[in-house]
Amino acid sequence: MTVARRERLRRGASAALDICVVAAAYYGSAKLGLLQQLVRGQVTPLWPPTGIALASLLLRGPRVWPGIALGALLANVTLGPSPPAVLAIVVGNTLAPVCSYALLRRVGFRVELARLRDVLALIFLGAFTGMLVSSTIGSGTLALAGVVGAHGFWPTWSVWWTGDAMGVLVVTPVLLVLRSARLPKEAPPARWVEGFLLVAATACVGVVASASAPLLFLGFPLLIWAAFRFQLAGAAPCALAVSTFAIVAAARGSGPFAGHDLLTNMITLQAFNGSSALTALLVAAAVSERNQAHQEISRACGYLAEMVDKIAAGGYQATLPLSVGSVDAVDETDTDGEKKKVRAKEENKRGERGGRTGRAV
Fold first, then answer.
1. Residue 252 pLDDT > 60
2. Residue 349: pLDDT band with limits 50, 70, 90
3. Average pLDDT of 320-333?
4. Rounded to whole angstroms, how far apart are CA atoms 348 and 357?
5. Residue 179: per-residue pLDDT
6. What spans are recorded as compositionally biased (Basic and acidic residues) (predicted)?
7. Backbone torsions φ then ψ of 39, nearest 5 degrees
8. Cα angle 260-263-269, degrees, rounded to a multiple of 5
């Protein structure tokens, strides 16, 4: 077996493993998302598989799209009204993250999410724009199959789009953070205490938000705290937790979601989850850019200080006089050469005059 063939087999096995892992993660997260279904047992306000699908495409490349299709097929095969409808829904669920991936690559998206432009691209291109594909195909399929009436198309579409977009907004950043997550080795004890306090405060807000009182807004101070102190590593999980609390409250019809119809609740939920995700991700990106700029300025100042110290210590005295002296020497050499040429011309002229005088005598 040649080395090239072994390399092809290794790559093929790696791709097959990635596809199986993505399919399993898609299917498992779909079962979790269906626990809070609102329309016909298959439309939920948070669809984590879309976030997993987009993250897998960003991290492993477009070769894993068959895993997304396989996971979508396994998740919808027992829910669809008919085999053609199931296939149409699977196509929509596969095309949506692929379109989001293509749009993000088009604008030069970076998975580190350390720039403000990357966060804005994930929100408006990856979540809001790309998920229009799955929500439109899925809702249209249910309407054509007679499962959803004409009056229920837009409520179904709003729930579908909300769930897919929220999956991208709150799940994809967490997976991108986990990709490069490392335990801080030199973190002071106060930092660990602050992290545990943030987790405890988030849990308390979840308990309060699940009650009848409309206190979901208490999550915004936690989002800002997490973004300022822990950047994306703290903001992404906190946004996921706050969005989950809001979805649970919407499914139960408690808090600000009590006494409203489905479309109104979905608009309210989308506005809240979108605002929380925007707040967390944008603040985290702004703080990361500020820290990066501060580090670059510190490096530049350190370099300039080192140069000044070398100059003050005489590190460049042997170089500058030598350069100046060499220039002066060249100038003097050029001047002497010109003088010698002038003298030679004058002597030649005198010799010619003397020769003419001797011939005349």
1. yes
2. low
3. 45
4. 15
5. 83
6. 336-355
7. -130, 115
8. 80
DSSP three-state, residue 186: coil
**Please, are residues 161 and 131 in contact by the beta-carbon 8 Å criterion?**
yes
Q: Give yes or no for a contact between 128 and 88, defined as CB atoms under 8 angstroms apart.
A: no
**Residue 272 near residue 48 (C-beta atoms within 8 A):** no
Determine the Cα–Cα distance for residues 286 and 281; give it in Å rounded to an integer: 9
The residue type found at 304 is: L
Would you say the pTM of this structure is higher than 0.90?
no
Q: Who contacts 328 (Cβ-Cβ below 8 Å, separation ≥6)? A: none
Q: Amino acid letter at 143?
A: A
Q: Select from 168, 203, 25, 180 the least CA-distant residue to 96.
A: 168
Question: Exposed, middle or buried, 237 (CB in 10 Å: 0-12/13-18/19+)?
Answer: buried
Q: Does residue 8 or residue 236 have the better pLDDT?
A: 236
DSSP string of 114-166, one letter each residue: -SHHHHHHIIIIIIIITHHHHHHHHHHHHHHTTSS-GGGHHHHHHHHHHHHHH
Structure tokens belonging to residue 312: 């003050």
Q: Which residue has the higher pLDDT, 125 or 271?
A: 125
Q: Cα(310)–Cα(8) distance, rounded to whole angstroms?
A: 55
C-alpha–C-alpha distance, residues 284 and 278, integer Å: 10
